[in-house]
Amino acid sequence: MKYLELINKSIGAAVLISLGNYALLYLGNPFGPVLFALGLLGVCYMGQNLFTGKCGFFFQDKIKGEDLFLILVFNLIAGYLMGLLFSVTDNTVFTNAVTKVSTWSFSLPFFIKSVMCGVIMYIAVFMYRKGTPLGILFGIPLFIFCGFQHCIANIITLGVARTFSSSIVLAIIGNFMGSIIMWYISKDIDLEKEKKKS
To answer: What is the pTM of this model?
Structure first.
């Protein structure tokens, strides 16, 4: 039963992010990136399982490796399927997705952009856990405007474009690394706060 709940919440997260990604592909700048934030707001407030929102808290929350892997797998599967569904709804969305995917590559710049997205995702969720949605409201448009790469958004876009790109591997690894780096930094900050209180 535990795994069924985990899978359902992972699928739910992909559906929410896909709604934001659809807005991004349909509207473009400047409104798309702002509306995309609704996806992560929904994930956080509805308690869904999003890989990029969980991986930075892998050690802190003592998440099992197999659970994080399942979250990623079902985020990717559901995200790609949602993308395929969206690909037949509007030709503009399909065309924009194809154009966007054509700019991706298995390269160092793409990987760096993925790491930076992981950094922002950790900050956004960290701030939400501290009681404010401002990290999400500002962080999501920020990573999109900067061209940083979010693995779940990317798999949705690949579904819309009805294709695949090996760059998704870099996005996954980069998102994870960026989040873990920020967890390590914030862990030290929290320790300093605790020392000052004592």
So the answer is: 0.92
